């Protein structure tokens, strides 16, 4: 209750001032930090944007006071002070629960624009047939072609990357009007923006917090609309919010209206994308379609099996992300509910398949081997760690119920189960191909490191990146990003 009372006082402070003044002052405060990433982080942009959210949702035009610098700093200090009233690491059963809330909220501000993410999405979406339902949906929703979003996004990034200029106008794109019409550029900017007149209504609609303290941990809703449109100008609320929006915009916008229908298409696309990596790394693998030929009709299966000398590596593609409640909560039941159709289902499928291999493997199916591993590859980070951590924090009863029907020899050691992003998967394939690491050795080292407190990692990407100073991207991904950059540079130079 102390937190709720303090929040009411903070909102009362904010509501005394014009919401536009709060927005303008907040952006000046963030951009005054310049290009120094550490200085920007010290200003807690996730909380500054929370102040902006509260300013518009709780707008009160009857009580307006001029917003001085002292008033604004008093508001920020009050918001920062709320940290003393929410749960601390020692208030959680496992510190990982506290860390994952922080990770969802803050990690998005800690790394620069990823051209590899854009290249990956280009490979996933750009080359679909013109009559594919997802391409048609994008055109219907935004009024322009999906491929044009990829090209124009680089121009926008170039405008804001310096961190000095946070407003953009359509006429800044005029050198490209020969290839992209003025109206197309406007449609592009509108697709990732919110009109200032609609901001209060949209923020209220997107507010899932129900004024719970978990709102203090949420990812800023501005990640859906990082540009605020006011007249002819588009104001970027934060460059890192813009980067994250663009990197995953195709996935996010296509999934937004009909998630289940989208996943029916995207699931298969995602599986095929992982196949590129397996082929690229020249791994000895078997696909689901081949496995199913020798399985009973109702027997559970996984997407790929990588055959190793000493153990099998099961790969299951889950092109998912964590929904809002799963990101902000520390309630094990809620987290379990949000991952039961992805992480838990993958464990169930792999366990049942391994159990069948124990009884029937070795002829038409891969040979059963003790100590097999499971990699559940997701589109975005779930921050679940490994299977043992999932078991200890949220899924003990559920995993125990799965193992009741699995022969003890076929139960996959929970420490040998990892939930990794597609980015980590791609880089791991590159470690195998370009840096000559054995995939089994990569996994064994990660498992051993996570078994010791001093070497334990928070997320699997830290294991992957620990092998070399800089991982060469997979050739198929680098070629796609080079193609995007070449088109971008040619358009600029010709224009």
In short:
The protein has 495 residues and is α/β, with parallel strands linked by helices. It has helices at 2-15, 19-31, 37-42, 45-57, 69-81, 95-106, 115-126, 133-142, 146-160, 182-191, 199-206, 239-247, 249-256, 259-280, 288-292, 324-328, 332-360, 387-403, 422-433, 439-450, 460-464, 475-494, and strands spanning 167-169, 193-195, 227-230, 233-236, 285-287, 304-307, 312-318, 373-378, 417-421. It has a five-stranded mixed β-sheet.
Per-chain topology:
Layout: H1 2-15, H2 19-31, H3 37-42, H4 45-57, H5 69-81, H6 95-106, H7 115-126, H8 133-142, H9 146-160, E1 167-169, H10 182-191, E2 193-195, H11 199-206, E3 227-230, E4 233-236, H12 239-247, H13 249-256, H14 259-280, E5 285-287, H15 288-292, E6 304-307, E7 312-318, H16 324-328, H17 332-360, E8 373-378, H18 387-403, E9 417-421, H19 422-433, H20 439-450, H21 460-464, H22 475-494
Helix pairs in contact: 1-5, 2-4, 7-22, 9-12, 9-22, 14-19, 17-18
Keywords summarizing the entry:
alpha/beta, Restriction Endonuclease, 3 domains, five-stranded mixed β-sheet, four-stranded mixed β-sheet, 22 helices
Written overview of the protein:
The structure is a single chain. The chain is 55% helix and 8% strand. It is α/β, with parallel strands linked by helices. Helix 9 packs antiparallel against helix 12.
Stretches where pLDDT is under 50 for at least 5 consecutive residues are none
Helix and strand content put the structural class at alpha/beta
Tell me which CATH architecture of the largest domain applies here: 3-Layer(aba) Sandwich
Our estimate of the beta-strand percent is: 5-15%
Q: If you consult CATH, what is the topology of the largest domain?
A: Restriction Endonuclease
Number of helices: 22
Helix content: 40-55%
- Net shape: globular
Number of strands: 9
Can you summarize the main beta sheet?
5 strands, mixed
Query: Could you say how many structural domains there are in total?
Result: 3
CATH class of the largest domain: Alpha Beta
Strand order of the largest sheet: 5-6-7-8-9
| Quaternary assembly | single chain
- First-to-last CA distance: 60 Å
Mean pLDDT: 92
């Amino acid at each position: 209750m102390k937190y709720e009372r303090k929040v009411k006082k903070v909102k009362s402070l904010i509501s005394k001032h014009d919401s536009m003044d709060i927005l303008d002052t907040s952006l000046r405060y963030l951009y005054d930090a310049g290009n120094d990433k550490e200085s920007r982080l010290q200003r807690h942009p996730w909380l500054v944007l929370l102040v902006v959210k509260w300013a518009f949702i709780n707008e009160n035009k009857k009580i307006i006071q001029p917003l001085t610098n002292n008033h604004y700093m008093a508001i920020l200090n009050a918001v920062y002070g709320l940290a003393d009233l929410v749960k601390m690491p020692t208030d959680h059963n496992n510190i990982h629960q506290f860390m994952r809330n922080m990770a969802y909220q803050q990690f998005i501000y800690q790394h620069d624009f990823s051209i590899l993410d854009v290249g990956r999405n280009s490979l996933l979406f750009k080359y679909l047939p013109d009559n594919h339902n997802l391409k048609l949906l994008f055109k219907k929703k935004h009024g322009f072609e999906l491929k044009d979003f990829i090209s124009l996004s680089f121009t926008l990034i170039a405008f804001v990357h310096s961190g000095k200029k946070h407003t953009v106008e359509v006429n800044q794109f005029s050198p490209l009007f020969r290839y992209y019409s003025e109206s197309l550029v406007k449609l592009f900017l509108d697709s990732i923006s919110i009109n200032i007149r609609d901001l209060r209504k949209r923020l209220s609609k997107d507010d899932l917090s129900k004024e719970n303290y978990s709102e203090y941990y949420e990812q800023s809703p501005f990640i859906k609309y990082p540009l605020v449109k006011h007249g002819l100008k588009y104001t970027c609320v934060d460059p890192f919010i813009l980067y994250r929006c663009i990197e995953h915009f195709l996935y996010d916008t296509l999934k937004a209206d009909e998630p289940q229908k989208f996943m029916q298409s995207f699931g298969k696309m995602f599986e095929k994308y992982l196949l590129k990596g397996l082929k690229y790394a020249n791994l000895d693998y078997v696909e689901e379609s081949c496995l199913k030929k020798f399985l009973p009709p109702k027997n559970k299966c996984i997407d790929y099996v990588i055959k190793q000398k000493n153990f099998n590596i099961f790969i299951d593609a889950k092109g998912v992300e964590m929904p809002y409640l799963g990101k902000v909560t520390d309630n094990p039941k809620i987290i379990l509910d949000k991952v039961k159709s992805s992480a838990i289902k993958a464990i169930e499928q792999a366990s049942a398949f391994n159990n069948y291999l124990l009884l029937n493997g070795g002829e038409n199916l891969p040979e059963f081997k003790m100590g097999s591993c499971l990699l559940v590859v997701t589109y975005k980070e779930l921050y679940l760690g490994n299977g043992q951590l999932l078991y200890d924090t949220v899924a003990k009863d559920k995993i125990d119920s799965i193992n009741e029907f699995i022969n003890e020899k076929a139960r996959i050691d929970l420490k040998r189960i990892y939930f990794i992003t597609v980015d980590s998967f791609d880089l791991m394939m590159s470690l195998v191909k370009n840096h000559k690491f054995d995939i089994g050795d990569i996994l064994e080292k990660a498992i051993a490191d996570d078994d010791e407190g001093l070497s334990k990692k928070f997320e699997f990407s830290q294991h992957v990146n620990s092998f070399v100073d800089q991982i060469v991207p997979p050739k198929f991904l680098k070629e796609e990003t080079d193609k995007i950059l070449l088109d971008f540079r040619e358009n600029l130079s010709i224009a």
